[in-house]
């Protein structure tokens, strides 16, 4: 993963399995880069964990991701 730490204000990223080892690091790096973070998680403990990491939104990867992301007000995301 390569992130340019210049301002990404107004840009968004969808991180699959945001509560996993790689995903949790990606959430933190994306927040440092100024991205709006949408992370996937499904279990209550996983949802709590990604929220503690600073994710902006959590969606359930067992459900339709496009529908959930659009319901949050996003037409699309800038990065996945």
Automatic annotation (TrEMBL):
Residues 21-80 form the Alcohol dehydrogenase-like C-terminal domain. It holds the Pfam family ADH_zinc_N. One of its GO terms (molecular function) is zinc ion binding. This is Zinc-type alcohol dehydrogenase-like protein SA1988.
